[in-house]
Amino acid sequence: MSSIRTLRDDYGPRHPFNAQIGWLIDNGQDHLRRMRVDGDSFYRSVAFACVEKILHAQDPRQEVKRAVEVLDSTRLLLEVAGFQPSLYEDSLAIFQSIVQQIVTPDINGETMTPEILLEAFQHPEVSNSVVLYFRLLTAAQIRAEPESYIPYLIDFQLEPMQFCEKYVQEMGVPADEVQIAALSRALGVTVEVGQLQDHTAAVAASRVKFVAYQGTPAVHDSNSSPIVLLNRLVICTLDV
């Protein structure tokens, strides 16, 4: 975790991003966490932020209980979408174990800390397994409710199943609005995505526009703060 002011160090003093970074600071965005840049950045960022929010919650035990219930419920969604348990159970178990370690020590007697969480996501086997689960969950949401996403797939000229196979389930393929909306709905969390831009309109406004993707009302906790992602050439998770 670092101060959002460090973003200014990445650019020259006259770069258009600087005014927008100032706007973020003035509007209460103080810190960020830089995430590894690749095609899986979105899924990894959301997964990490979900755990980090629970880790720093006022009542972590209650939040862990709720998170595990939500994760357990995703099995039905994955099955309805046609995914076999053998495809997702191991990945789901890995992510659940990370969440549960917040309140239940692992085999080494250690409970979750920010350092252990960061180390886990830096381990390729763990990180890739978590990303796979989040990709399958995203695809399951689209495949289970195709009518909700067909209007957004017209430009791709693909059916929902084909879109999922090519742009969601495939590791390393970046996420776009469709995937963000589907994953936030499946998890029942709100994801807000902002974009640093260097075009004239953004510079004139000196502000960052955030688009909110709402979780499913049935599982969404209205009292929970959103996951906030800032996109430039990388994806950063803002600490709110």
Automatic annotation (TrEMBL):
UniProt-listed Enzyme Commission number(s): 3.4.19.12
Signal peptide: none
Domain of life: Eukaryota
Any one Gene Ontology cellular component term annotated for this protein: nucleus
Molecular function terms, GO-annotated: cysteine-type deubiquitinase activity; ubiquitin binding
Catalyzed reactions per annotation: Thiol-dependent hydrolysis of ester, thioester, amide, peptide and isopeptide bonds formed by the C-terminal Gly of ubiquitin (a 76-residue protein attached to proteins as an intracellular targeting signal)
GO terms under biological process: protein K48-linked deubiquitination; proteolysis
Gene3D superfamilies registered for this protein in UniProt: Peptidase C65 Otubain, subdomain 1, Peptidase C65 Otubain, subdomain 2
Class of enzymatic activity (EC top level): hydrolase
Entry keyword set: Hydrolase, Protease, Thiol protease, Ubl conjugation pathway
Protein name: ubiquitinyl hydrolase 1
Species, as recorded: Athelia psychrophila
